[in-house]
Structure formats: C-alpha cells, structure tokens
Write a structure and sequence with these properties.
This protein is α/β, with parallel strands linked by helices. Strands 1, 2, 3, 4, 5, 7, 8 and 9 form an eight-stranded mixed sheet that branches.
Length: about 350
C-alpha cells in the first residue's frame, strides 16, 4: 500500500507525504490544521474569559451602587434623630460622654445646644445631665458651665441635676458644678480639680541621630515650648503661671456652684480623684443614685426624653474605620494641649 492510500494519521513531527502529481503544488503540512484548532480554542477561551470578567465587573459595580444608595438612605433617614417625640410632662436628658473638646461630640456647641433645647421645652419639668467623661478643654467646659448658669437664671423654675456614671472628672466636673445638685454611684470617679498640659521633648533623640534643629522666628517667644528645642526656664515658669491661672478659674467655678456644701479640705483642689462615697463626704456631690433614681425619686417624673445631639450614621461608620488614629497620635506628639484633668 502506498503512502497516499495509507489510513495512518500523521503524528507530530512526521514528515508530510508528498503528492504523486508532478505539478508544482504548495506543501501544506497536516499539523497546520491542528494548529488552527488550538488557536481557535485559545481565542474562544480568551473571549469566554473576557465575558466572565465583564459579568463580574457589572456585578461589583451594581454592588457598589447598592451600597452607596443604602448609605445615603441611612444618612438622610430619620432614625438618627436624638430628640424623641415627647407627649406630656417628662424629664429632659442630656448625655455628656467622652472627651470634652471642640472637635468631639461633647463640644460646647453640641452640649449647650442640647441643654438649651431642654430648657425651652415647656413639657420638660427638669434637666438631667448624665455625665461619663474624663474631662478635656477648659474653654469648652467653661462655655457649657456659663450657659447652664444663664439658663438657670432665665428659667428659675426648672432645675438641673448632674448624674455621674463611671467618671465625672476635671472638665466634666467643671460642668457638673453648674447644676443644682450632683449625684453619682458609690464607685464613680469624681473630682480631679486640676489642670494639666503635656508634650514631649526630642532633643536627646535628635542629638543621637545627628539631626540639627533649624528654627527661624520673628518674635522672641514665637518658638515658645518648641518640643524640638531645649527647655527654657523662663518659658516653663510662664507656662506654669498660665496653668495656675486656669486652675484658679476652675476652683472659683466649683466654689460658686457648690458653695458651703464643700468640705474644708485642702486636698479638694489638688487634682485628686475620689470615689462616689468619698465625694459625698467631701461635699463634691449631694447624694448617691442613678439617672432613673433621680428622675423618679428626686424630680418625680420618671419619663425620660433624650435631647442629646448625636453623630450621624455616616460619621459613626467613618469613626469605626479608625481613620483619625494616626492624626491623633501625631498631634499628641508635637502639641502641648491645655486640659482640665
């Protein structure tokens, strides 16, 4: 049998059979057909992969759209309203939680605004400040203190009660001192009537690393307490006078608010913090009790309506991501912030 008539399928690498005709015809190897089939399969596979990628891309785009739409619904929905619909007489509640600072939830704008709304509400028979804060800015605390004092004079029939839960120290106690009466738990931390300002000095580290500080100023004290320069005795002395002046303002506010209820104890204004039981003996608080106890037993109106301003859902979501952590650490390293503690 001749090669032309053979039924044998040529394998890869086999020498192709030449046609018996004598005419000059192009030689087409048999494996060329297989190559085209492989190329066709590869092209089809790539097209299938592209279609699959497009489908996944459309899916993720739709998912992102649904997520953003849901986020907008949450932001604009009424579920985040802090003021509950009130019917009839009630006790107004204002929460003071966390650090007291201009960029925090417990800022003067938020707290004073909430207290103002509570005083202006005719159905609110009294106001309770529920405090759980270690303190913070003396400026923000002073603003709130002054606003409470003003509102008490404008609405003399409406009393203000401060209730300290876990901690009501420093700037938080500054605010509480403006209330008619203060209550706490026996284990609450109360007091810390003092002022603190801190920072860091990097001169030793800079010397070890061979880093030279180059600071150019116009004004003898423009580089006041620069953390990258050695301390100057006159600057430290001046800063201490600022702290003492702020401390004196704090003490005067507490004495004005508490009056002769304060015990004659020199440790009261030393910055020490006391338990609720100790604070009661020292006259820093008027009794032991919770928010519900004060509303029910002292005010006589146990229905509570929360007037606190709260963060919206979007801000809560962002905070949970912890995006401000790095910024907070950096600012703490280079800034010397005055705080009531």
């Amino acid at each position: 049998m001749s090669d032309w008539d053979s039924d044998k399928t040529p394998e890869w690498g086999d020498k192709p059979a030449e046609p018996r005709s004598g005419r000059n015809q192009p030689k087409v190897p048999p494996e060329t057909g297989r190559d085209w089939k492989l190329i066709e399969k590869l092209v089809m596979s790539l097209q299938s992969e592209q279609r699959r990628s497009r489908r996944w891309g459309i899916f993720f785009k739709l998912l992102t759209f649904v997520y953003l739409f849901a986020l907008l619904v949450i932001v604009w929905s009424p579920f985040g309203d802090s003021l509950e619909a009130a019917t009839g007489k009630h006790t107004a509640l204002v929460e003071i939680n966390g650090p007291i600072a201009a960029d925090e939830l417990a800022s003067a704008d938020n707290i004073a605004g909430s207290i103002r709304s509570a005083f202006e509400e005719e159905n609110a028979v009294a106001v309770i400040l529920r405090i759980n804060s270690p303190g913070g800015s003396p400026v923000q605390s002073g603003y709130i203190y002054d606003e409470i004092t003003r509102l008490r004079e404008e609405y003399p029939e409406k009393k203000v009660y401060a209730v300290i839960s876990d901690i009501g120290a420093s700037g938080a106690y500054y605010i509480a001192a403006a209330a008619d009466e203060i209550y706490a738990n026996r284990a609450s931390l109360v007091g810390s009537i003092g002022v603190v300002a801190g920072g860091f000095g990097f001169t030793g580290v800079m010397d070890k690393l061979g880093v030279e500080r180059r600071l150019y100023t116009a004004g003898d004290n423009k580089a006041f307490l620069d953390p990258f320069s050695p301390q100057q005795e006159q600057e430290v002395a001046f800063w201490q006078s600022v702290l003492e002046n702020t401390h004196r303002q704090f003490i005067e506010a507490v004495k004005k608010g508490r009056g002769d209820r304060l015990a004659d104890d020199e440790r009261l204004f030393s910055g020490l913090v006391w338990s609720g039981e100790q604070a009661l003996e020292l006259g820093l608080i008027d009794g032991l009790g919770s928010t519900s106890h004060v509303a029910r037993q002292i005010i006589g109106q146990e229905d509570l309506v929360d007037y606190s301003r709260r963060k919206g859902p979007l801000l809560d979501f962002v905070d949970q991501l912890g995006l401000s952590f790095g910024q907070g650490v950096a600012s703490q390293l280079v800034e010397s912030r005055l705080e009531l503690r």
